[in-house]
Automatic annotation (TrEMBL):
CDD domains: RWD-RWDD4. Gene3D superfamilies: Ubiquitin Conjugating Enzyme. The gene is LOC113396266. It comes from Vanessa tameamea (Kamehameha butterfly). It comes from the Eukaryota. Residues 132-157 are annotated as: Disordered. InterPro entries: RWD_dom (IPR006575), RWDD4 (IPR042770), UBQ-conjugating_enzyme/RWD (IPR016135). Residues 10-110 form the RWD domain. Residues 132-143 have a biased composition (Basic and acidic residues). This is RWD domain-containing protein 4. SUPFAM superfamilies: UBC-like. Pfam families: RWD.
Length: 184
């Protein structure tokens, strides 16, 4: 067993013992781990993926999870820059716990930007809906009984609700002129 594999096995045991009972931690498989950060009504999930030579190389980070679809791109970039900077310091050591904890300390600062931009977007959306709602609905033209009767008589359907004979017939000459002629 290689040194990297031994360190990975040891770190797996440590992570399981530290995060036992923590609902925010999830081991997806032997080489990928997720942690859910919550601040008020905002939250996100960071996924850390170990490569075959982890911890001698830094792991990869994933925020492109369905749960994170509401995160603004600027917030995602900020999270990734913080985690990458921290990971660069810990190359060669077990760092998954350290990276998760580093973000825990900064989660309120990170999500504050998300909240500010979300409030601006919400205010713009409200302003747009107010502009569209200010239009008055158009009134239908009121017709007298005689006008309605004439309209029915002009339509394809008569007063009795029956359609005139042949209303759905196909014009054979027109139909045949549309189909290409192929000699047999």
């Amino acid at each position: 067993m290689s040194d990297d594999a031994e360190q990975q096995a040891e770190e797996i045991e440590v992570l399981k013992s530290i995060y036992e009972g923590d609902e925010n931690f999830k081991q997806v498989d032997a080489k990928s781990y997720q942690y859910k950060y919550i601040e008020g009504d905002k939250s996100f999930i960071l996924e850390i993926l170990w490569g075959p030579t982890y911890p001698t190389e830094k792991p990869s980070f994933n925020l492109e999870i369905f749960y994170n679809q509401s995160l603004l791109p600027s917030v995602k970039d900020k999270i990734l820059s913080i985690v990458n900077a921290e990971a660069d310091q810990w190359v060669g050591c077990a760092m998954t716990y350290t990276l998760f904890e580093c973000l825990k300390e900064k989660v309120s600062e990170i999500l504050a930007e998300q909240m500010e931009e979300a409030v601006v977007a919400r205010v713009e959306k409200i302003a747009i809906t107010e502009q569209t709602e200010s239009k008055k609905p158009e009134k239908k033209e009121q017709m007298s009984k005689a006008q309605k009767r004439r309209a029915w008589d002009r339509a394809e359907i008569g007063r009795a609700g029956e359609r005139p004979r042949g209303w759905d017939w196909v014009d054979i000459v027109k139909h045949l002129s549309q189909a290409p002629h192929q000699p047999s």
